[in-house]
Each structure stands twice: as structure tokens, then as C-alpha cells.
């Protein structure tokens, strides 16, 4: 199917939540080495709440916006710096069209969402944050030539993965990792890794 349906969006978020649950120790370990060690818990508990919200509301699968809004609500009730940032990201997606999303809709929604996160957190590409994965993924979505949402998101996933990998070797300029400077240089940013997992999760929908 060319467009992203509400049901597919719901399935995408379910796969993402499973991926994070399976990798929560990895995220905890990264944040322990470059921060305070709570990122795995923060994102894992937010996604558990999101899932409960998706299961409770039998209208969540009607359109992608409603799915993303439910996920946003869960992140906004979560701790850490990542809670409000992911809450804003998913919240802007949740303001997208209340119908199946074309590739153009996807690019517009992620463009708005990523720009909002960049502004709130003040992070640019190269500062070793989730933005290092969000920006290239969003660029892939807005400039891609794919006809179907699956191909477009698969391209975004490759870009997000490359962006997340690029954080290994960066000296952090934002967030707690910036307090560690060179000592956390070789650690991947857990927020960027989670964003790569998010886009990669769509491949298993
Ligand atoms: P905290 O540092 O409050 O414990 P979390 O552990 O919940 O925050 O989240 C850490 C993640 O948040 C980092 O891996 C990074 O991706 C992201 N992050 C931190 N500060 C910023 C920022 N200013 N802009 C964008 N992302 C940020
Ligand atoms: Mg932390
Ligand atoms: Mg913390």
C-alpha cells in the first residue's frame, strides 16, 4: 500500500515498543557511560504507557495522527530530557492529517516535528543527540523519490542508522554527555540509537 494507514502506524509503534523493550539494557548502558543511566527506563516506560493507551482506545487505529498523539501523551508523562523532546516530536506528528498519510504527508509531518525538537533542545547535527538521527531521516523523507510509505521510511531508517552511528566519535555539545566531553566520545548517543530503531521498526510492520 502506498499510504500509511492508522492500523499500520499502530503496528509500527508496537514493533518499536518491542524493539526498545528487547534493547532496554543496551540503552541503559549507553546512558550510563555518557549520562546518568535512566534513558532505558525513561523510554521503555513511556512506550509501555503508549501501548496501554493504544490498546485502550479502539479508535487509535483510525489514522496515524491519533496513534502518534497517544504516543506523545505517554512521553510527556515521562521523565528525563528525552520525555518532553520525544513528547514534542510525536505531538507534532499527532497534529498531522487525520487520514492515511502519503509520502508527502510523512515528509511534511516529520519536517515539522524534527524542527520543533531542534528548536526546543537547541541541538544541531553534530552535537551528539537524537537530532543526529532525526535530521537525516527527515531529510530522506522530504527529499526522497519513493512512491510508497514503506520505501520512504526504509530510506529514512538507513539515514537514521548512519546518523546514530556517526554519534560514536562525537564530543557531545548538549545534554549530560556534554559534561563528560572526550570521556564519552566513543559512546553512541542512546537517543539517536532509539530514533534509528524507531524508523527500522517499520520494516517489520
Ligand atoms: P537526562 O539527561 O535528563 O537523563 P534522558 O536520559 O532521558 O535525559 O535522555 C538522554 C537523551 O536525550 C540523549 O541521549 C540525547 O539524545 C537527548 N538529548 C539530551 N539533550 C538534548 C538536547 N538539548 N536536544 C536534543 N536531544 C537531547
Ligand atoms: Mg539520562
Ligand atoms: Mg536523567
UniProtKB/TrEMBL annotation:
The record's keywords, sorted A to Z, are:
Kinase, Transferase
Source taxon at top rank: Bacteria
Per the UniProt record, one Pfam family is Dak2
Gene3D superfamilies from the UniProt entry:
1.25.40.340
Q: Which SMART domains match?
A: Dak2 (SM01120)
Domain (DhaL) spans 7-204
Q: Which InterPro entries match?
A: DhaL_dom, DhaL_dom_sf, Dihydroxyacetone_Kinase
Signal sequence range:
none
According to UniProt, the name of this protein is: DAK2 domain-containing protein
Amino acid at each position: 500500500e502506498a499510504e500509511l494507514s492508522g492500523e499500520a502506524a499502530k503496528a509500527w509503534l508496537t514493533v518499536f515498543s518491542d524493539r526498545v523493550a528487547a534493547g532496554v539494557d543496551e540503552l541503559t548502558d549507553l546512558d550510563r557511560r555518557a549520562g546518568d543511566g535512566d534513558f532505558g527506563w525513561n523510554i521503555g516506560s513511556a512506550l509501555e504507557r503508549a501501548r496501554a493507551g493504544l490498546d485502550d482506545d479502539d479508535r487509535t487505529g483510525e489514522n496515524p495522527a491519533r496513534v502518534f498523539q497517544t504516543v506523545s501523551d505517554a512521553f510527556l508523562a515521562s521523565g528525563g530530557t528525552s520525555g518532553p523532546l520525544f513528547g514534542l516530536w510525536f505531538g507534532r506528528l499527532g497534529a498531522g492529517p487525520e487520514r492515511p498519510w502519503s509520502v508527502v504527508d510523512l515528509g511534511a509531518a516529520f519536517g515539522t516535528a524534527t524542527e520543533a525538537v531542534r528548536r526546543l533542545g537547541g541541538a544541531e547535527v553534530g552535537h551528539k543527540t537524537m537530532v543526529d538521527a532525526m535530521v537525516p531521516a527527515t531529510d530522506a523523507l522530504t527529499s526522497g523519490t519513493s512512491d510508497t510509505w514503506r520505501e520512504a521510511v526504509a530510506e529514512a531508517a538507513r539515514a537514521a542508522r548512519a546518523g546514530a552511528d556517526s554519534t560514536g566519535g562525537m564530543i557531545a555539545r548538549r545534554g549530560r554527555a556534554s559534561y563528560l566531553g572526550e570521556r564519552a566520545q566513543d559512546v553512541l548517543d542512546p537517543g539517536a540509537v532509539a530514533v534509528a530503531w524507531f524508523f527500522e521498526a517499520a520494516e517489520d510492520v
